[in-house]
Predict the 3D structure of the following.
Amino acid sequence: MVDHPRLLVVDDDEAILHGCRRIFSRQGYEVETIDNARAGLSLATSDDYAAILLDIEMPTMSGVEFLGQLRGRKPDLPVIFITGYPSVSSAALAVRLGASDYITKPFTPEEITQALQQSLGNRALNGKKRSPAGPSGAAQAGPWAAASGGPRFLDESWFQSGNDGTVRVGVMLGKPVDSAIEAIRLPRIGEAVYRGLPLAGLTVQGRQRILPSPVSGVVVEVNSAPERSPSMLWEDPFGRGWLASIHPTRLEEDTDYCKPRPLRLANADEASGAAQAEALTLLGCRAEVISRWAPTPALPDDEPCVLLVDAASFGPRGPELVAWVNDDEPSTRVVVIAPATSPHEAAYRQRKIFYYAVEPFADKEIIEVLNAAFRPRRVPSARARQSKTASDSLGIISTTNRNGKKVSLLAARGLMSRKEGVGRRVSEQLTGRLFPMKTMPGKEVISQASLLAAASACDRLLVLVVKEMGRLSGSLACKRGEFFSLPAETARKVTALLVQPAIPGGGLNSLDDRTTAALAEHILAEITTT
C-alpha cells in the first residue's frame, strides 16, 4: 500500500487553497486546507503533517504568530511561508522565525513544488526516507511501480505514471552505437523542467543532442545507470534505462498533449505476429495484430494511424493490400517490414508507404522507425524573406488575457523579432487566438526605469532574459519578484523568464526549432492564463 503524506495549507485566499490542493493531490499527497489561522494552528499542533504551507498575512492571526506558537510544540515541522510582498526583509524574517522557505504570490506549480521538495529534504519523495545520494547525485528511493496505462510519448521522449504520484521519464533511441555516445547529461534533483524544453542531453561525435521533457514538473530522482552504460537507453528503456523521476505539475495538460502509440500489425503468420507484437509492447506500443486482411476500425483522428505490414507473411499479395489501404485510408502511415532478400521491394515502393524497413527488429532500427512514424506532422513557422531591420525587433508585447488582466512581455532588443523565433510565434499565436495585442520595438538594454514604466502600465509583467545558468540550451527558469531590485509592490507584478542560451553570450536565435516552439508555448501560457 502506498503511503500518502499529509500537507496542511492555511490561507484565507480560496484560490490559493484550491491551487495547492490541485497541485499536490496529483503528486500523491493528502492535502488538507483551511482558511482560518487559529483553527489551522489547532490542526497543526494536534495532527501529523509532512509540512505546513502558511499565509503570512491573515485576519485572525498572522503567520508570524502562528509559527511562533507552533514552534513550541513542533520545532522541526517544515513550514513554508506564502507572501504577497516579496523582499529581502521577508526572506530574513522567514529564516529568523524558523520557516523552511517562503514563496511569493502569484506562484507557478513548479515554484511551490520546488519549495516543498527543498523543505522536506531527504523526505522529498512522498514522505519516504531517502538514502544518501548515489553516483551523479542520484538520491535512492524505494521501489517504483507503474500505475495502470502504458507510456505516453512526445517525439522520442516518454513518460509513465507511477502509483506514488511521480512519473518516470526517458527516451527511445534507435540504432545507436555504444561508442558514438560520448556523454549523457542528466537533470539535477530539484530542477524544474517544462514539457518540450530540455530534460537531458547527449553528446554524440562532439555535438549535443537535446532530449525534450515530456512533462512539466520538478525532478526528484535521477538514474545514473545510463551514464555508465548508454546501451540501456535502447535495450531496456522502460526498465533500467529511464532517466529521471519527476513530481508532475501539469499532468492533465501533459497527458492530453503526449500520446500513446497504438498501431496495427498485419502478419499472416500467427507465431511470427505474436513475437513481433511482444517486441512492440516492450517498446511502449499497443499492437493490434491482424492475421487476415480485412477492413478494421480507424484510429481516432488525433492519433497517427500506423500500420506495420510483415511482407514475408503475405508474399506477392502484400503490395496489392497496401494499395487497398492507400485508397481506403490514405492518411495511414504504412511501414513495410521485409526480409533482406524480398522479391517484392520494388512493388511496395511503387505504393504509398512511409518506410521500408529490412529486418528492423534485428538491429533495433524499429525504434527509429516508430519515432518517425508517430511524430506529428508539424508545419514549421514561416520565416520572412526580408532582411532584418531595427524595426523588426519586438521589445514589448501587451495583451489582455482571458482573466481580464493586462499582461506585458518585455525583452531587450535582439531577443524577439516580428519575423522569426519566439517573438514571431508568440505574436502569431495571440493574433490567431483573437487576443488584443499591442507591440513596441525593443531597446538595447532593460533599465530600472524601463522596468518600472512597463510594470506600471499592466497588471503583470513578464521579462524575457537570456542568462547563463549552466544548464542545457533552451532550459527555462521562472523567478518571481526577487530577481530584480524593485519596490515590493512592483516586484510582485514581475516575473523573470530566464532562458539558457546555446552559446555563451548568445541570444535565442540559435535554439533549434523544436525548442523555440516549446518555449513560445510556455511563454504564451504564462501570458494568457495567469
Remarks:
- The chain has 17 helices and 25 strands.
- The first strand starts at residue 6 and ends at 10.
